[in-house]
Give the backbone structure.
Amino acid sequence: MAEDPEGRRPVEGLRCPTCGARQAWTDTCRRCKSDLRLLREALAAYQRHRRCGLRDLQSGRLGSALRHARRCQELRPGPESRRLLVVCQLLRGDWLEAVDLARTVDAAGTETDH
Ligand SMILES: [Zn+2]
C-alpha cells in the first residue's frame, strides 16, 4: 500500500483545459494559444504537497499529511489525490470519511482511465 510508482513518475505532457490538445509542457497551447502557465504552477504545487504529504505520512505526522493531501485534492482532483487522502484518514482513524472517499475512488478510477 505504501508503494505508489505513479506518484513518483514525472508528469509527461499535458492536456489543454480549453481545447483538450495534448502537448509537451509549454507556456501557451499550440492549438488555441491559451496561457498554460497557471496550470504548470498548479501542478508544481500539487507535486510539492504530495511529496510533503508522503513524507509526513512516513514520519507519522498525520495531521500535517492530511492537510497536504487536502491541498492535493483541491489542486488536482482525481483517483491519485483521493487515494492519498484516504490513506491519511484511515491512519487517523477517520473510518467513515475514508470509506466514503474510497467509494468515489473506485467509481472515478473506472470512469476516468484515459
Ligand atoms: Zn488549447
In short: The helical segments are 5-8, 37-58, 62-75, 79-92, 95-111.
